[in-house]
Amino acid sequence: MPNELQPPRGTHDLIGEDQRRHQHVIDTARRIAALYGFDEWSTPLFEDTRVFSRTLGETSDVVTKEMYSFQDRGGDAITLRPEATAGICRALVTNGLTQSLPQKVFCAGPMFRYERPQKGRYRQFHQIDVELIGSAEPLADAEVIACGWEILKALGVAGDTVLEINTLGDAESRQDYRGALVGYFSKHHAALSADSQSRLERNPLRILDSKDERDRTIVANAPTIAGFLTEPAAKFYARLQTYLDRFGVPFRENPRIVRGLDYYGHTAFEFVTSKLGAQGTVMGGGRYDGLVEEMGGPPTPAVGWAAGIERLAMLLPDPPRVPAPVAVVPVGEAAEAVSLNVLQALRHAGIRAEIAYRGNLRRRMERANRIGARAAVVIGDDDIAEGVAQVKDLASGEQVAVALADLPHRLR
Ligand code: ATP
Ligand code: MG
Fold it and tell me: Among 22, 85, 127, which residue has the most ligand 1 atoms within 8 Å of its CB, making it the best to mutate?
């Protein structure tokens, strides 16, 4: 294999502790999401490009700069999914599920964005994702957020994060607010970044989300949406906060949160941390009542979030450990046959067990230590005659004879 073959920029292999951290995030999220009534879906890693270009918004960074799009051999325009929500809404429509609402969906898997790689930012990264499709009630928003909070708690990272919430109001609130933003940012036009100058024409709300330092100081003094909320929109936001209190989820308001994609209204929120440098958002989401309709379905309210598995994995306090195995050590050929029976009996009893493929007693014991075995089950010809094995505790060095039939029970 030529050694110049490197993984593509922005991708990374998951091996050993990295994979265990990653898997622990998924397993924990899957378990908590199930308690909240979410069912797991798997949708394709690639979709018709229009699934994303139509719905994420022409002005979103994802669509303008970050999509992995290509033509396949049949000439179809394909995009590797940059996020999960659009594909889930597409699946809802194509599977005729818009008549069986609400649907509560959990999913986990890789996402692809052509970004500048850095700590916590990759081109292939992974997300866990929760979507509640079919309820327009703020209780749904609160439940989705509470589920996210419980996942962060179960992972032991909740103490490192703060939930920030905002409202983007309803269409009428946003229209008025948009006008005010255009007025404000137009006065600072020359000082804005080139990106934000073009956002000003197409979607001024997006400027609030800018990561450019020059923009940030201007954004700090921009009007907030609070003064533009219609009465129903203000009420919705107030009820969300009441429900979050009832679920016991602490939060603080941050009027700058608009989220990266164009389809949000009412609730927008992020769980942020100060422990990961510039890549501080670990989980983000909000309400996207127009998306299913954009996908060709009926008007359908929905709310959800996505969280970056790599960022959560980095925050995990302790690396999840694999249970130490038991090493089965045959001494002699006759013993090997018995050993394989013992090996399988241990595995059937739920005990992680291994056997070396060759080698004398000394080599096999060395290997047992190397793989971190907690015990060695040594089986020699004398033992077979007596129907026992010698169980050696590799930490204490203590050794006892145990009847073969008792091994699974004794080693559990
Ligand atoms: P950011 O502001 O960090 O670019 P975003 O607003 O683009 O995030 P979302 O589209 O909301 O992010 O995705 C939800 C979560 O997925 C983010 O909060 C983050 O944890 C994770 N995420 C997004 N892009 C990447 C990436 N390129 N690499 C690793 N994780 C990512
Ligand atoms: Mg981004």
Answer: 127
The ligand minimizing its distance to the Cα of 260 is: 1
Peptide bond into 255 cis (omega under 30): no
CA distance 68 to 1: 28
**Nearest by Cα to 384 from 343, 347, 344, 337:** 337
CA of residue 258 to ligand 1 center, whole Å: 14
The closest of 142, 302, 146, 143 to 236, measured between CA atoms, is 142
Measure 181 CA to ligand 1 centroid, in angstroms. Answer: 25
Local confidence band at 145 (pLDDT 50, 70, 90 cut-offs)? very high
Return the half-sphere exposure (C-beta side, CA atoms, 13 A cut-off) of residue 16: 1
Q: Domain 326-411's class? A: alpha beta
Residues 391 and 165: their CA atoms lie apart, in Å, by 57
- Sorting pLDDT into bands at 50, 70 and 90, what band is 278? confident
Could you tell me the fold of the domain covering 17-170+230-315?
A: BirA Bifunctional Protein; domain 2 (3.30.930)
Given ligand 1 and candidates 125, 282, 303, which is best to mutate, with the most ligand atoms within 8 Å of its CB?
125
Task: Give the closest ligand to the alpha carbon of residue 263.
Answer: 1
Fold equal for 17-170+230-315 and 326-411: no
Domain boundaries, the chain: 17-170+230-315, 326-411
Tell me the pLDDT band of 264, cut-offs 50, 70 and 90. confident
The pTM of this model reads 0.93
